[in-house]
Structures are given as structure tokens and as C-alpha cells.
Amino acid sequence: MKFIINKQNFLKALSSIEGIISAREIRSSIGNVLIESTSTGIDLTSTDLLMTLKTSVEANVVVPGNVMLPGRMLSSAIRSFRYENIEFTEKNEQVTIHDAENKGKTEIEIMASPADEFQVKVANSNLKFVSLPPTMISEMIDRCVYAIAEDDSRYAFTGLFIESSESRLNVVGTDGRRLSVVSRAIPEQIQIDDGIIVPVKTIRELRKLLTVSDQLSIAVDTEENTVLFQLKDSIFISKLVESKYPDYTQVIPKKSEYAIRLNKEDFRLSIKQASVLAAEPSRQIQLSFEKGQVKIQSSTPDVGRVEDTIACNFEGEPFTIAFNSNFLTDVLSVIKSEQVELQVSSSSAPAVIVDTDDSDFKAVIMPMRF
Questions:
Q1: How confident is the model over 114-137, as pLDDT tens digits?
Q2: Which residues of the chain have pLDDT under 50?
Q3: Rounded CA gap, 200 and 159, in Å?
Q4: Cα separation, 312 vs 116, whole angstroms
Q5: DSSP string, 215-283
Q6: Distance between CA atoms of 283 and 364, rounded to whole angstroms?
């Protein structure tokens, strides 16, 4: 195998798969990158058995072939190279990398493994893909990913729930104490009968890939229990969480006693201020509502307390409700409108935070005892 490739293009392709390459395994599919020649260049494939990413990059292929190399070692070697164009040669399971224009004497040798040891099925060619706007999917991820449980015995909570119905796409994240849901219109319905749960690790990797791709199509392989994302130069495949997602609609209150509007930035800054003295580990702050204002306060025994008051449109009997300050901050960080609406009924009932400029986004937070 032999090809000549631009260093920066090679690095860009390697960087896209680095999030999947294991730092520990270097003598199996995990931790290695499969390099395959094509008619227009080379394909790079990496897997951690949960996720598989195959990306294409232009190169001048002189001698076709396939080879498997330690991924992180290859990235480091290419990154350290001083020259613009690289000549890559493989012979007898040994790869030699040097300057393609013979301007320098640097030569790097890396022991390779046979390509047939890379035992990963990449894609089912019979699947139907649906095109989606990458910016829309990125925004939907951002609005829900913060609510996912990073590590939970309830496997359903460790990923984003995605469902499609009546040409709409719904994305949901929850950890059991908070929930975020966003809905958007899509060109056509994706065939997801009961919805799918995409692991949080996959979601974070997809979000990074979407920053450099202006194309996105999605398909679900029900037989393999995988989801496939076709990007501009890549195909990204992930296993799905094998669990049943709870009926999240039952968590969202159908109506609330109060719909309280607040200036988002004033609210955010007041919460940030109160969180400084919020006691660990609960991070509890209290919101005390009375006519036309809300008092936001927190305290830590033997340390101190903080209190701030901001305006709101509250009308009714005064009451106090407590939340984890981080939960409020996370929601407000993904709301773009100047005003937010806090829908509450009592100090013990779930509260809903609504983006006043986007009725298709809702966040539910369970209050805390105080």
C-alpha cells in the first residue's frame, strides 16, 4: 500500500475519529484505525465497539491496499511531521512515513496489523436515510443533553430519547429529577416505531462531528439495534441503549397555578450569586414569591448566606419553592429569549420552565424539600 496525502487533511480526518480511539488497546480493533484505499483517496475507520466512525479523505493512491495501525500513535506521528505532504508506505506489516517531496530526512516507522483483524460491520446498505438540518439537530442536542444521567443504573436515563411522529422529531433528556424536551418539524417521518435511546457518549461525539459538517442524514437499523448518521465525509454508527423509555409526557404538568415571567439574565445572575453559598451537596436555593417580586436566597451553616430580589409578574398568595441551583442554571443557559416563564403550582409540584420565544421547548425540574 502506498499513498501521498496532505498533512493537514490527514490530521483533520484523524482528529474526527480520535474521540472513539481507545488509549489503552493497540492490538485489536479497539484502539486502532483501519486505513483502506478508495478510488478517490482513503477511508479511516475506528471503533470502541459502542461507536464506529468511518471518514473519507482525499489522497493520491499509488498502490491500493488496507492496513490497521494504532490510532493515537499514528495521530501523534503525523502531528509531529514538519512537511506539508506525506508519503505513506506499507510493506510486510510495517508502515513508513516520510516527506513526499524529499525536502527532509525525517522517517517514521510503525508496526502495522493485518486489516482483516478489524472485525467491525460498518453499514447496512438497504437502510432508508432521512435528511435533517445539522444546525437544528445540534440545537436540539444542546437543549437536552445537560439533563441526561451520566451514570445511572436506570439505563434508559443514560441517553437521549428520540422519537418521530407526524413529521416531527422529539428529543428528550432526563435523569429522573429533571427533564428537557424539544420538538421540531422535519421534512419526513423517520421510521422509529417506539423511539430510540442514543447513548450520551454517542450524542457528545455526534455534536462534535456536526460542527464540521453541513450535511446530515439519519437511519435506524432495527435488526442490529443501531442508529446511523451520514455526514458530509463520514458515516457514524452507534449501538442503542436497550431499555424502554418511560412515558415522559406524564411528567410534564398539563396546567399550572402560576405562570411567572422573569427577565432571563436577571434571573440567571441572581441564581449564580445565590449558588456561591448554596450548601453542598444539594446546591439548594430558595425562591420566595410575593406580589411583583421573587427573593432568591441560599445559605450554608457556619459559613454565610446570600439574598437577592428581582422583579416578576407574580400575583397571588406568597409561597416558597426550592431547587438545585445547577438545574436552574443549566436550563437558563440553553434558553435564548429575553424572558422565561416559570410555571408552578406549589412548593412540592414539578415546575416547568418555558422559553417564551419557543413553545416547542420545555424543561421540567423537581423541587427540593426545605
A1: 888 887 766 666 888 999 999 999
A2: none
A3: 5
A4: 65
A5: -EEEEEETTTTEEEEEESSEEEEEEPP-SPPP-GGGTS-S--SEEEEEEHHHHHHHHHHHHTTPPTTTT
A6: 17
Domains 2-117 and 130-249 share a fold: yes
Place of cell 418521530: 164
Domain ranges of the chain: 2-117, 130-249, 254-365
CA-nearest of 227, 218, 212, 199 to 15 is 212
Cα-Cα-Cα-Cα dihedral sign, residues 279, 281, 287, 288:
negative
**Per-residue model confidence (pLDDT) at position 104:** 64
Q: State the CATH architecture for 2-117.
A: Roll (3.10)
Closest CA to 317 of 288, 340, 343: 288
254-365 belongs to which homologous superfamily?
DNA Polymerase III, subunit A, domain 2 (3.10.150.10)
Q: Give the containing element (helix H, strand E) for 320.
A: strand 319-324
Kindly state the cell numbers that stand for 196: 430510540
